[in-house]
Amino acid sequence: MKDAIDAKGLIETLGAQARAAAAELAFAPAQAKREALLAAAEAVRAGREAILAANGADLAYGAEKGLTPAMMDRLMLDEARIEGIVKGLIAVAEQHDPVGEVIAEWDRPTGLHIRRVRTPIGVIGVIYESRPNVTADAGALCLKSGNAVILRGGSESFHSSRAIHASMVEGLRAAGLPEAAIQLVPTRDRAMVTEMLHAIQYIDVIVPRGGKGLVGLVQREARVPVFAHLEGICHIYADAAADLEKARRVVLNAKTRRTGICGAMECLLIDRAFYEAHGPVLVEDLVKAGVEVRTEGDLLKVPGTVQAAPDDFGREFLDMICAAKIVDGVDGAIAHIRRYGSSHTESILTEDDATAARFFQRLDSAILMRNASTQFADGGEFGMGAEIGIATGKLHARGPVGAEQLTTFKYLVEGDGTIRA
User: Could you tell me the residue ranges of all domains in the chain?
Assistant: First the structure.
């Protein structure tokens, strides 16, 4: 009971501070937010040795907990990834500030002049697991969009997140913005997750970043609205009209570049006509690269493949494993994805415009691609600088959630002594 009481008191303190900070951020000058993010980027670069040391402690903790190689990869920071954090902060800093943007404007016969204007949501709660870079990405995007944020990192990334958060606070301080604009929950206590999910008086929306267990928990228990995707069950469909060399390059990249991210390909669908023309070359490439391909039918003849279990289709492996299946044309692929997909990202490999158009029109995933790797399902690759997550719901935000998606709008209505008849 004591832990629950402490957690409740802590979220009330953090929430009250965030509300006060959000009230100031709502009208903070765009230049001040830009300066804060540039100063934070410099602080991350200057403090990289301390961040790497903190990450070393987290990696030891993760190894002791028995994290999978994919999870350890998500957790790991090196010089290149820290420089990626720096570049992400700079990219967000230099983006157009969405707050105050006039989305639409019109006049009414009554004499009213009406504007629909972007405005911050308020306080964002971000709950994430092992990726410490989320501390910077989420903090930056919330600040850019005029929102305060309460960050609850995973127990695995506890030390790394604290070190990165210190740099974010340094940036706020340098720009004269409230330090409570970006707060990090200072405890590993799991009770804080429950308290955040119930904190409707302090938090306006929750964004979970992590595996199926975390996201499912948030979606089941949250009283606060949620932007989330449950799983990244991403498909690639190789059409009869696919260019063979393009297809081989894209499929390998989509599965093997980084297996632990939500944009990794989890299921390869091969048009029967493609298979008859080229054989199982795409599956052979994957097996040769060290991927365990779980399949059925003719594809099981490929040495190194294994029989797929019923639940392997519609499964997020986040590992050097994928499912593969032969389908009858684009309609077969569409039917499979509708049944097993998670509305995240799907890609079609084809040189036929009509087939690509049918794939785009008849599927409703948040991101649909043509002749491109699903690993591009990322806010940074979309030119957003960073993302706070990929939303697969249909309300408010879909796909990469950047600064613009973290705003809502209000109506500004002006008259001249105007009255309603």
Answer: 2-227+403-414, 234-376
